[in-house]
């Protein structure tokens, strides 16, 4: 008795196409996963095992940064129970990226270009209406910080002395 597994594989390929816009050789990943599933008693058994191996393979690729977390549509992923564990990993990667960004403070201005380079930082900046700006005032920056604190995180600020501060600092030495 031969079990037709090709419809299961095509379904996974189609589903993955709905959540991922990056560039990977999905056929190679599918072939690798397919070869990992050696024994199965039905198409449903194959589907269950294939999904576990597939998620494991994608998770490893994400952790090794062979694929980028920015290439996933979390909204599409939330619709399916299959992608829930992957969704959590991607969100964790995006928060980690936000934690590593730096904001440069120079006088009473904040350069948020580092924040804008992150996935979550860019979304926050856009939603608050600062999409076209990289330098913000104290009050504007405080609005961003308040929003980021809701994620229970603070963005590190690197303070760059102004020309006046440099001048007086040099005079004291």
Describe the structure.
By secondary structure, the protein is of the alpha+beta class. The protein folds into 2 domains: 6-94, no CATH class; 101-172, no CATH class. Helix content is 59%, strand content 8%. It has helices spanning 6-19, 26-36, 43-63, 74-77, 84-100, 113-116, 119-127, 138-149, 163-172; strands spanning 103-106, 109-111, 135-137, 157-160. Strands 3-2-1-4 form a 4-stranded mixed beta sheet. A hairpin with a 2-residue loop joins strand 1 (103-106) and strand 2. Helix 3 (43-63) runs parallel beside helix 5 (84-100). The protein is elongated, with a radius of gyration of 23 Å.
Helix and strand topology:
Elements: H1 6-19, H2 26-36, H3 43-63, H4 74-77, H5 84-100, E1 103-106, E2 109-111, H6 113-116, H7 119-127, E3 135-137, H8 138-149, E4 157-160, H9 163-172
Parallel strand pairs: 1-4
Antiparallel strand pairs: 1-2, 2-3
Provide a short characterization of the protein structure.
With 173 residues, the protein is of the alpha+beta class.
